[in-house]
Amino acid sequence: MRITREKLIQLAQQEVERRAGAGQALLSGYLIGSAAHAEPLLGGAADVDLVLIHTETPPHQTEIVPLSDVVHLDITHHSAAFYDQPTQLRVDPWWGPALSEPVFLFDPQHFFERAQAGARGQFHRPDRAIARAQAFLLHARRAQQRLLEDSCWPQAYLEAAMEGANAAACLAGPPAAGRRLALTIERNTATLGAPEVFAAFQRLLNAEAVTTWRIPDVLSAWARAFDAASAQGGDPCFQPARRNYHLAGFQALAEAGRPEAILWPLLHTWDQAIRSLPRVPSTAAYRSAWEALLAQLGLLPTESGLRLDELEAFLDHVDFILEKWAHDNGA
Length: 331
Fold this sequence. Notes:
Layout: H1 5-21, E1 26-32, H2 34-37, E2 46-54, E3 62-66, E4 71-79, H3 86-89, H4 95-100, E5 103-106, H5 111-120, H6 126-146, H7 155-169, H8 181-192, H9 196-204, H10 215-232, H11 240-255, H12 263-276, H13 284-297, H14 304-328
Parallel strand pairs: 2-4
Antiparallel strand pairs: 1-2, 1-5, 3-4
Helix pairs in contact: 6-7, 6-14, 7-8, 7-9, 7-12, 7-14, 8-9, 9-14, 10-11, 10-12, 10-13
């Protein structure tokens, strides 16, 4: 089967219709993410971000449905109550942009059409845009505060760096996420006229160190940790379909001469995998490989003091950019 954006949308449509026909009490279904408005394939693999709205509270919030070895549905389940106040969703830093340009798949009662119209109204107005940017910065500051707890390193550090970068990046386009996160931050901040934000974001991760890596060895160590987390069961983030999806993206970016662009999603997913593993002798090898990588990047907990100073300076600069943008745009 030749994978195209149109084919992915068709497969998502069929899944929604199948579930509606099976009596799952669906109100609406729609697509967001790269399949909705961009090129979903990277390295020949793709996920399709599908949102299903239920009349009642759904039994789970997320679900992964494999469609092939290289394509899966990444489903978010919402209750109708999530859309009770669409004007508040408009300034949500993640859901505001997602609702601005979705692909409608199923909406027989026009429930989502009404909610989306409310969320999209005056979406691009400067005061709405700066509200979303400030929300990202607030999230970054909260993650920064969590770093006072040793158990949050490097999880909260990675979150603070990403949310801070997105605070600036979202002023020039959709927020950055997924495998193309670094590329999106780079493009958006350049469009904004603040390319130094991307450069600083990469320095927080010590991205230059990636040039010394043997990428296949690093990806093999990542895959072993992922497989160990997958064997624990229960977390949809570690379903086998996600393994192929991430690896294909990492390999494609490395082969395209952008290995540093894999760093944030690689670290984020690796950290999640390690956190999911019990602290028993059988998992020691996975932790050892993870700690060796952090040592190469200067991201061990013992080096957090310097990193926290750099993070503080980064977030302060992003704050300055937001203030200037608000002033220049009458927000």
